[in-house]
Amino acid sequence: MPHMTVRGHSLNYKIVGNQGPWVALTPGGHRGMDGVESLAETIASAGYRVLIHDRRNCGLSDMAFDDSQSEFDTWADDLHAMMKELNALPAYIGGSSSGCRLSLKFALKYPQSVKALLLWRVTGGPFAVNRLQHEYYGKYLEAAEKGGMAEVCNTGHYQEQCALNPANRKVLMATDVKHFINTMRVWRTAFLESAQTPVIGATEAQLKSITVPTCIVPGNDNTHPLRVGRHLNEILNRISELHIMYPEHQDVDLIPGEEWIPREGEMAAIFIDFLKRVGAHTPA
After folding, report:
1. Share of residues in the chain with pLDDT > 90 (%)
2. Which residue(s) pair with 92 in the sheet?
3. Domain layout of the chain by residue ranges
4. How many other C-beta atoms can be found within 10 angstroms of the C-beta atom of residue 154?
């Protein structure tokens, strides 16, 4: 897989498709780009070039901790820089869960670089905020305070990253523990501030500033509640359309993304139809 140096860090990426309008897709959680690769292949087969990549601290990309802003702010800045380097802007931007947060942040920070948004499994609400702030940041903050960076290397996602690439352990062990702790606090705060916002990472006023067509496929669990996707569609109003694939909410913390795979073809068809319709009204 090719790597690109983006804002001082090496990011692993792949372009699926050889021609057509550009699309960027990002998976949920801290998953690697393989989480959206099959979806990217289906969309590319309809005449698009799809960029997928491993975000910082994910997959085979570099480990790096920027405490100047939220993690999804940093991810959005990285993606914009990468697509600019590829001469791929403006583009269609999409993602699931944390990839959805990245996409919304991208649209807010770089409105002229977005043709339309593809959003699925939208996260929001107090339960999602409290669960995810601990899952992504709180437990690593606790690990660092308990046993320094060695403890971080043996915990959750970072343990997995060290197993995936042994060089990651060296990077983590060389990271100043105070800087790491502060970064986790900054990133966690961005979540905690979203307890009462419509979606994690954006206020209603910010969402109303988005003017590009948006396709929304809500989730169906307590982390990705159906009502959050519905509410986002109501806020975006005339520029959005809602496609409910799972009308029955399940009262569980999280439905694994893998359980959506059997209906991925259906979701891809929704997105392709949306892209074709939007593209027909978008100036070249």
Report:
1. 95
2. 23, 116
3. 3-124+202-279, 130-190
4. 13
User: Which helix (H) or strand (E) is 16 found in, with range?
Assistant: strand 9-16
DSSP 8-state secondary structure symbol assigned to residue 64? -
Write the secondary structure of 190-215 as one string of H (helix), E (strand) and C (coil).
HHHCCCCCCECCECHHHHHCCCCCEE
Confidence of residue 190 (pLDDT cuts 50, 70, 90): very high
Distance CA 228, CA 122 (A): 7
pLDDT, tens digit (0-9, with 9 covering 90-100), for 199-237: 999 999 999 999 999 999 999 999 999 999 999 999 998
Q: Check pLDDT > 50 for residue 115.
A: yes
Residue 247, classified by CB atoms within 10 Å of its CB into exposed (0-12), middle (13-18) or buried (19+), is exposed
Question: pTM of the full predicted structure?
Answer: 0.95
SS3 category, 217? strand
Question: Is it true that domain 3-124+202-279 has CATH number 3.40.50.1820?
Answer: yes
Structure tokens at 72: 């999804």
Please report the pLDDT score of residue 280 as a whole number.
76
Phi-psi group of 125: left, alpha or beta (phi > 0 → left; psi -120 to 50 → alpha; rest → beta): left
Between the alpha carbon of residue 95 and those of residues 26, 53, 109, 111, 173, the distances in Å are 4, 12, 16, 16, 31
